[in-house]
Design a protein that fits this description.
With 251 residues, this protein is mainly beta. Helices cover 14% and strands 37% of the residues. The chain has 3 helices and 15 strands. Strands 1, 3, 4, 6, 11, 12, 13 and 15 form an 8-stranded antiparallel beta sheet that branches. The protein has a 7-stranded antiparallel beta sheet with strand order 2-5-14-7-8-9-10, with no helix packed on it. The chain starts with a helix and ends with a helix.
Length: 251
């Protein structure tokens, strides 16, 4: 009888603990509601454009873009169909607009993949752009990343903030991972996970009140569309560490 009573007590305790686990463990233990991107080390992510045939922003900013013209979906670097977008000169671009999150004036990072469709040296093509052009070049402001011609025998990739810029030659038609950053008036350039160069700004970045565009220049006075593929554009409101950049490259 004593043995039977002990079994009954243990059974009651077991059922009680099971009920508690179903209802939760009280105020001391809370459900982790951290967004998946932050849980994966992507703090400060303010734009996440996978470019899987659309212009959707899957970050918490939800700044949905608009496809202007025609931009076909193609295979990405992993040969997954409809997982990157093909830009053809001035046939199409993505308009994000002059949204609050991209009015960046202090710290930022942009990570993306590109693939040139040909080797050319006599063109200027915009890949990422929030740039306001002025007659006096020193007065021009904003930021952009693009292909710059007429200065080398190989295509030049240019990361520019205000009047300061970093130029890096590229002689490949393979997929290339790019990360560009800004912090404390210093801009940096990384290619395929490796640090390449940095420059100090002549003057601090100020917002330009022009739209953020992918594949075209923000200034409507002329066109300068990109020829090639773009995939997985991530934008952060902070400077990424070298280990985070390498992680994105190996993603």
């Amino acid at each position: 009888m004593v043995f039977q009573k002990k079994i009954n007590i243990y059974l009651i305790l077991f059922l009680f603990c099971g009920l508690i686990s179903l209802l939760g463990c009280g105020e001391d233990e809370k459900i982790d509601e951290t967004p998946p991107d932050i849980a994966c080390g992507m703090e400060g992510l303010i734009g996440k454009f996978k470019l899987d045939g659309d212009a959707d922003d899957t970050s918490t900013s939800l700044n949905q873009g608009q496809i202007i013209g025609t931009i076909p979906a193609v295979e990405n670097r992993k040969e997954v169909p409809n997982s990157a977008m093909s830009f053809k000169n001035n046939l199409g671009y993505i308009e994000i607009g002059d949204v609050e999150e991209l009015k960046i004036t202090d710290a930022m990072s942009m990570s993306f993949w590109i693939k040139l469709d040909s080797v050319r040296t006599n063109v200027w093509e915009s890949i990422i752009n929030k740039w306001k052009n002025e007659d006096d070049a020193i007065e021009s402001s904003g930021y952009y990343f693009g292909v710059h011609g007429n200065i080398s025998t190989v295509p030049i990739l240019r990361w520019r903030v205000n009047f300061s810029r970093i130029d890096v030659g590229i002689g490949t038609l393979d997929w290339t991972h790019i990360v560009v950053t800004l912090k404390d008036d210093i801009i940096k350039f990384y290619g395929d996970g490796v640090f390449i160069d940095e420059k100090e700004l002549f003057n601090s970045l100020m917002d330009t009140n022009v739209p953020f565009r992918i594949g075209e220049i923000s200034d409507d006075s002329f066109q300068s569309g990109f020829n090639g593929l773009i995939d997985d554009l991530y934008i952060f409101n902070r400077e990424l560490s070298e280990s985070e950049i390498l992680e994105l490259f190996n993603e």
